[in-house]
Specification:
The chain is an alpha+beta fold and 145 residues long. It is built from six helices and seven strands. 6% of the residues are buried.
């Protein structure tokens, strides 16, 4: 059994018989992996997509964000506003990954589950390039100031 103990804003400590006692600062790269190992077959996050949608819709009820003009199935869709919700969080996360964590287009495409061609790779390049989570994982461990 693993327990989480909050000591201070940046001093979360995890302790358990199998993993000993480690602070987030000391755990470094192993903490995230340990989290998933400890969870085992349990859900990694204690909420469903539907619960998140409901909460995000309520939390962002007064916010909107702009969508640039685009082509959707060959039809032109003009610029418009959307109510913020779960999809808004995707925009925020993709922007954060690119701006703060320095994700390159191919890593961003892989992380988000997009076709590598959306990252500017040709069809041939996308066919022969194979990325894995290890190629960007170290970037996710950057500490915020």
């Amino acid at each position: 059994m693993v327990r989480e103990q909050k000591l201070g804003e940046s001093d979360t400590v995890f302790s358990g018989a199998k993993y000993g006692r480690r602070s987030v600062k000391d755990a470094g790269r192993g903490l995230l992996l340990d989290y998933f190992i400890v969870r085992g077959p349990e859900l990694a996050f204690p909420f469903t997509r539907q619960t998140l949608h409901s909460y995000a819709s309520e939390a962002f009820a007064c916010l909107t964000y702009g969508i640039d003009p685009q082509l959707v199935h060959g039809a032109k869709v003009p610029a418009h506003e959307r109510n913020a919700g779960v999809h808004f969080l995707r925009h925020l996360r993709a922007s954060e990954l690119a701006s703060f964590y320095g994700f390159e287009p191919a890593h961003l495409a892989y992380y988000c589950g997009w076709d590598l061609r959306s990252a500017g790779l040709s069809k041939v390049m996308a066919r022969y390039i194979s990325l894995s989570w290890q190629s960007y994982f170290a970037r996710l461990l950057l500490e915020r100031a």
